[in-house]
Amino acid sequence: MDEQSGRLAREDGVELAWRRLAGRSPTVVFLPGFRSDMVGGKANELAAFCAAGGQAMLRFDYSGHGASGGRFEDGTIGRWTEDALLLIDRLIEGRLVLVGSSMGGWIALLVALARTPRIAGLLGIAAAPDFTETLMWEAMTPEERAALLREGVLHVPSEYGEPVPVTRALIADGRSRCVLGGPIRLDCPVRLLQGQRDADVPWETALRLAERLAATDVQVTLIKDGDHRLSRPQDLLLLRHALAALIALGGEDGA
Questions:
Q1: Going by C-beta distance under 8 Å and a sequence separation of 6 or more, which residues neighbour residue 105?
Q2: Contact 120, 96 (CB under 8 A)
Q3: Distance between CA atoms of 59 and 78, rounded to whole angstroms?
Q4: Disulfide-capable partner of 18 in 60, 63, 90, 237 (CB 3.0 to 4.6 Å)?
Q5: Is 130 a catalytic residue?
Q6: What burial letters (b/e) apply to 69-97, b meaning 16+ CB within 10 Å?
Q7: Which residues, in sequence order, are CB contacts of 131 under 8 Å at separation 6+?
Q8: For the segment 131-190, what is each residue's pLDDT rounded down to a tens digit?
Q9: In whole angstroms, how far apart are CA 48 and each of 6, 51, 56, 126, 128?
Q10: Is 231 in the active site?
Q11: Which of 61, 130, 173, 198 is catalytic?
């Protein structure tokens, strides 16, 4: 099955890059992580899985990421959620299974809350809801917070490459979109995969998220030796199995 690709312009002219597979409903939507893109290992694995099974799929890059236009520094959780909603609404009909990796897990929750009737299932891979507050702001020293508020941006060292520009807007917007402070009113099936050797997202986050979800069909899989990426062959096998189960449930629940 051939994968289509294209670009969709936002109202401000920024173009968002996407790839799409035609196939059966529900459509699998992959939401990448912070500073990640739609051609990483997990995204490619899921695309191959969906192509082999005749399953519809959409993957894309948020603004400021990958092949999309815009500046990374101009992005926020809200802006990237709006990017996802625009692409979903313009390119997909019917029900959705959302697959979110790291930050993409938070955005998947926000998308699901905005399009609840369409959501057949949600799969989080090292999902990182509220990370701008709990893993960025709370980890900063008083001096770093002061510099961020004064200058509007703080460049934070990263083991994955260049320093990460953390903006005042990213922190402020993220604070307004936190979800773990109360019930998350979703009732779709949810699967959460989480490594216990994740150096970026504490594994307890998955348990807290499961507790907050209103849904009863929620399963957390803890991988004792798994890291944040969860990209080893055994991790990808778990990912395929979890997605297949959600697709099967989505097929039963809706047209």
A1: 31, 124, 125, 126, 127, 128, 129
A2: yes
A3: 18
A4: 60
A5: no
A6: bbebeebbbbbbbbbbebbbeebbeebbb
A7: 34, 102, 103, 106, 174, 201
A8: 999 999 999 999 999 999 999 999 998 877 789 999 999 999 999 999 999 999 999 999
A9: 19, 5, 11, 21, 25
A10: no
A11: 198
Identify the active-site residue in 63, 68, 130, 228. 228
β-partners of residue 222 are: 194
pTM greater than the 0.85 cutoff: yes
- Asked whether the predicted pLDDT for residue 63 surpasses 50, the reply is yes
Q: Is 102 a catalytic residue?
A: yes
Cα separation, 254 vs 236, in Å, equals: 27
Question: What's the pLDDT tens digit per position in 18-61?
Answer: 999 999 999 999 999 999 999 999 999 999 999 999 999 999 99
Q: Look at residues 220, 239, 219 and name the one whose alpha carbon lies nearest to residue 230.
A: 239
Q: What's at 131, amino acid-wise?
A: F
pLDDT at 255 over 50: no
Confidence (pLDDT) at 20? 98
CATH class of 3-130+182-249: alpha beta
Q: Which of 102, 130, 173, 235 is catalytic?
A: 102
